[in-house]
């Protein structure tokens, strides 16, 4: 398998790979998968992903034909850069031949070369093969959350390559202690966001924490966008957010 950065001409092939990969890995309706793939890898979205400086779309090809790809982002958090591997898609016709492992290693190397100190992966709990994939490579489960897909709630598992930094207790304005998950990071417009839980077991979601100004940020608009009232940092819904489907 040969590796290269995705180009604008790869749109049709990447949409086919993502569609077939999701069909093989998840028990989701065809309509849900079609809507998601169109939203994430339509021509305009793909162009934006390819051109962004903090992202990596890496294609694996055989005999000049794309058969797999990864999507990753780099997140600046204080003085440390974390890489999120959002998707690793291998066309079902080419699974079982080690291509996914090879593409993963190449992706990890390139992310580290780009300055990432830590690598994280996200996968739905219903994807047993995806969870096993990370465990076999020494990743540890750092947490989980609930996400809604086409009206149904699913659990997403977060895996980390480095030792988890754990939870940071924070006191709210009404003297309630909540817990900032420093391992759970989402890139905002000008800084990182962290998930906040009401309990140390990460069972009850409280809200979000703005890493740019170190303030709780619980405001969310009708489109699922988180916004910090203090500094204006905002995060658009990504991946499986309901507003995207």
Write the layout of secondary structure elements.
Elements: E1 2-5, H1 11-25, H2 30-41, H3 43-51, E2 55-62, E3 65-77, E4 80-90, H4 99-113, E5 118-124, H5 128-136, E6 140-149, E7 152-160, E8 167-171, E9 177-187, E10 192-197, E11 205-210, E12 215-216, E13 219-220, E14 226-227, E15 234-235
Parallel strand pairs: 4-5
Antiparallel strand pairs: 1-2, 2-3, 3-4, 5-7, 6-7, 8-9, 9-10, 10-11, 11-12, 13-14, 14-15
Helix pairs in contact: 1-2
What proportion of the residues is helical, as a percent range?
10-25%
Could you state the order of secondary-structure elements as H and E?
EHHHEEEHEHEEEEEEEEEE
CATH architecture of the largest domain: 3-Layer(aba) Sandwich
> Which radius of gyration do the C-alpha atoms yield?
18 Å
State the gist of this model.
This protein has about 240 residues and is α+β, with helices and mostly antiparallel strands. It is about 25% helix and about 40% strand.
Description:
This protein has 245 residues and is α+β, with helices and mostly antiparallel strands. The chain has two domains: 2-162, 3-Layer(aba) Sandwich (Aminopeptidase); 167-243, no CATH class. Helix content is 24%, strand content 40%. It contains five helices and 15 strands. A seven-stranded mixed sheet has the order 1-2-3-4-5-7-6, sandwiched between helices. Strand 2 and strand 3 form a beta hairpin. Helix 1 packs antiparallel against helix 2. The chain starts with a strand and ends in a 10-residue tail after the last strand. Residues 240-245 have low confidence and may be disordered.
């Amino acid at each position: 398998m040969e590796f290269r950065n995705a180009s604008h001409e790869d749109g049709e092939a990447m949409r086919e790979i993502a569609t077939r990969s999701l069909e093989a890995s998840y028990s989701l309706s065809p309509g849900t998968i079609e809507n998601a793939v169109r939203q994430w890898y339509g021509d305009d979205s793909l162009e934006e992903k390819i051109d962004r400086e903090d992202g990596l779309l890496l294609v694996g090809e055989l005999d000049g034909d794309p058969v797999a790809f990864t999507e990753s982002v780099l997140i600046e958090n204080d003085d440390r850069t974390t890489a999120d591997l959002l998707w690793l898609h291998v066309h079902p016709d080419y699974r079982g031949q080690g291509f996914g492992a090879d593409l993963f290693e190449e992706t990890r190397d390139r992310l580290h070369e780009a300055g990432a100190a830590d690598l994280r992966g996200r996968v739905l709990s219903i994807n047993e093969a995806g969870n096993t994939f990370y465990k076999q490579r020494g990743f540890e489960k750092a947490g989980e959350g609930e996400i809604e897909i086409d009206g149904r709630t699913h659990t997403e598992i977060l895996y980390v390559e480095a030792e988890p930094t754990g939870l940071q207790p924070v006191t709210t304005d009404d003297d309630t202690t909540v817990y900032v998950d420093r391992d759970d990071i989402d890139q905002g417009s000008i800084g990182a966001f962290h998930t906040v839980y009401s309990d140390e077991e990460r069972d009850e979601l409280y809200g979000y924490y703005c890493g740019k100004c170190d303030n709780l940020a619980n405001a969310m608009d009708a489109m699922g966008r988180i916004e910090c009232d203090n500094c204006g940092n905002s995060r658009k819904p990504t991946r499986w957010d309901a507003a995207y489907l």
